[in-house]
Amino acid sequence: MQPWVADEVRTANLGDARLDARFALVLDRLSHKPTLKFNAACRGNAEVVAAYRFVNNPKATAQALLDPHAAATLERIREHPVVVLAQDTSEADLTCPHEPMKGVGPLNDAGRVGLYLHPLLALTPDRLPLGVVGVKLWARDPEAFAQPAAAKAKQRKAKPLQDKESVRWREGYHRACEVAQECPQTQVICVSDSEGDIYECLAAGQAVQAAGLRPAEWIVRACQNRALAGGKTADPAGPLFTAAAAGPVWERLTLDLSKRLPKSKDQRKRKQPRVARQAVVTVQTARVTLRGPWRPGGKLADVTVHVVLVREQDPPAGEEPIEWLLLTSLPIETAAQAVLVVQYYCCRWQIEIYFRVLKSGCQIEATQLETRAAFEAYLALCLIVAWRVLYLLMLGRECPELPCDSVLGTDEWQAVYAVVTGQPPPAQPPSLGEMVRCIASLGGYLGRKGDGPPGPKAMWLGMQRMTDLALGWHALASIVPPPTG
Fold it and tell me: Residue 209: its pLDDT value, please?
């Protein structure tokens, strides 16, 4: 078993020592073969049967399986002065025309069914993933989903936030506050995209602080041109975007923008396709007080926030200019602080890459499990595996001089080195950066001049080949005596 697996499940307590051992073994097998299911990842029929029994065991809930990983993640968080907690939502499309999975619900249309997942991924400012500290899973009610759109809109408007799906954003922030309490020496910053622009989420920090607890800092990309408090406040009159645009230009930055594919049936600007490019943007700031909106039960309190407006000045022909309006609790008194907010927000993209590893690498949507409970247990295992793939990839980028044997087994790095280079492995382990490139080359990474660093797909494919090579290397060593003399 890999040492890292033992570390991740060290605090596991499923109520039975045999279940704890099975947990570690199944996680170990899946991490060796991220894209494969139990039949191919496990070794022999007995292991396959035991793996299916494990995810169908009522004690093996998603929460119980993720708790030890979250505990290990907190230990890693405590080693860093600043940690970004990125939260976002994705769907697991489990539509099956033959035998639909029990317990799932409709997604964005009645013809597709599955679950929604909303994880909280811990990252360093250099985008090294430290692990998942929480995840919310839910399925929509088919009967409620089938109601006419007008009826659903009316019901939604009358509901308090705690009865809506969007409460996940506030719950994610509250979890970030718990992490801040458990890691007092670390500055914890919760980052959300524009779906998290919910007034109750912006006001949550004030409530946490009023309760005498340590709040996490937060950054939310705005999507609503909110009203500002007037009267005796010093804020400029007018809506939020106008006030932000009136602020001073602190800095000009060059941002690397990733390629974005079109989203069907979604006409929102932030969902439109774009080409990968570098964008030159200006950074403006302001300090405003948002006027609390009316809700059932009364008016919410005003909230004072800092605003960072990021705007592209000269976009390529045919491309929409980049415009981010970031709301934050972080102080902004200097240009460096304003730029830091932008850099922290850019870390959020890493959770999109994490979702890609989870869906395309671990292929969670290709499961043939029969019940929602079994799938949730399997998903919890895959959440850990996807983190490990991304962790190795980014660690090789951020700490390339680290000895590779700090994260790879001897059989693993020696087998890969021998196959990729055609040379006997050296006495001293190579650097992690070199071995990550070697592993990625097994997954199709060519390392040409303009290729850039390896990507996640090459990494998860290379890791699977590394497993087979390591098994062969170990078997050969057991039957061929080492050279003498």
Answer: 83
